[in-house]
UniProtKB/TrEMBL annotation:
<keyword id="KW-1003">Cell membrane</keyword>
<dbReference type="GO" id="GO:0009247">
    <property type="term" value="P:glycolipid biosynthetic process"/>
</dbReference>
<dbReference type="GO" id="GO:0005886">
    <property type="term" value="C:plasma membrane"/>
</dbReference>
<keyword id="KW-1133">Transmembrane helix</keyword>
<keyword id="KW-0808">Transferase</keyword>
<keyword id="KW-0997">Cell inner membrane</keyword>
<feature type="transmembrane region" description="Helical">
    <location>
        <begin position="15"/>
        <end position="39"/>
    </location>
</feature>
<keyword id="KW-0472">Membrane</keyword>
<keyword id="KW-0812">Transmembrane</keyword>
<dbReference type="InterPro" id="IPR004960">
    <property type="entry name" value="LipA_acyltrans"/>
</dbReference>
<keyword id="KW-0012">Acyltransferase</keyword>
<dbReference type="Pfam" id="PF03279">
    <property type="entry name" value="Lip_A_acyltrans"/>
</dbReference>
<dbReference type="GO" id="GO:0016746">
    <property type="term" value="F:acyltransferase activity"/>
</dbReference>
<protein>
    <submittedName>
        <fullName>Acetyltransferase</fullName>
    </submittedName>
</protein>
Amino acid sequence: MNRHIENVLYAPMGWMLHGLALLPLRALYALSTGIYALLYHIVRYRRKTVADNLARCFPHLGSDERSAIERRFYRNLSDYFLETIKLLHVSDEEMRRRIVFENMEVLDTLFDSGKSVVAYFSHCFNWEWAPAITLWSRYKGCKNVRFCQVYRPLKNEWADRFMLRLRSRFGSESLPKRTVLRDLLRMRSEGIMSVTGFMSDQKPSHGDPTLPLMLLNRPTAMITGTETLARKLKTAVIYFDLSHTSRGHYRLTLKHISDDASETAPMEITRRYADMLQESIERDPADWLWTHRRWKNPVKLPANDEPQAE
C-alpha cells in the first residue's frame, strides 16, 4: 500500500491510541477488564492453544490450578496491550517507579572493561518496557554506547513504524534481525560498545539452526543463532530476568552468564539460557506468553537427552 494512503487510513487509529496513552494507568486498567472479557470469554482468543500448552508443560497441576493460571495470563495480556500503548505518553520518572532494574552493575562493569554485551530475554510481561534500561544506566547518553534490541519487522508498515516509535521511546535502537550481525560489526568498527537484547524463547524460523533440549517438560528446539553471534563477536552475555511484582510494576534483574561467549563450551550458553528461562516461567507461569505456538512442530531429542522412565 502507498505509504501516504496508509498514513491517511490509519490516522484515526493513531489519534485513538495517543488519546488512550494520555489516560493514567489506573484508567487504562479499568479498560483492560473489558479487553480481558473480550479476549477470554467472547473471542476466546487462542484459548485452545493456551490450555494445551499449560496442560503439557504443567501436567502435575490440577485442572483448576491450570485454569487459574490461564485466566491470570489473559488478564496480564490485556494489561500488556494498554501498558505498551502508554509508552506514547509516560514520563521517565513514572517509568523508573514502575520498572526497577536490579544488578545494573553487571552491565556497567562490562562497559567499563570495554565489552559489548548480548542480553537474552523473553516474552515475560511486560517485555516492551525493557528498553527503559537506559533510565538506569550511567552510560545513558554516552556517544560510544548503544542500547539495542533485535526485532522482526511487521508486514504492516504503519504498525511497524508505530512499534519502532514505542521501542525507541527511551533512546534505544531497534535492529532488524536480518542485519543485526552487520549492524553490530559496524558499531564495533566505529569503536561503539553495545548491549543488544535478543528474544530467544520463540519458535525458530524455518531453516534456523536449533538445539533440541527439554524445556518445561517438553522437547524443544531452542534458537542457537544468538549464541553463535555472541561467540563470533566475542561479546559478554547476560540474562534479563523480568518479573511482575504487582499490577503495573515490574522488576528486571540482570544476571551474568559469560564475560566472553567465545570461551565457553559449544551450546553452554543456550543451555544456561534455557535453564534461566524455565526458572523465570515456573516462578509465575501467568507472566509468560502462552498464545504463541512454541511447540507447533515436533522435536526429536538426541538419545542421550531423552527423559528416562522411572
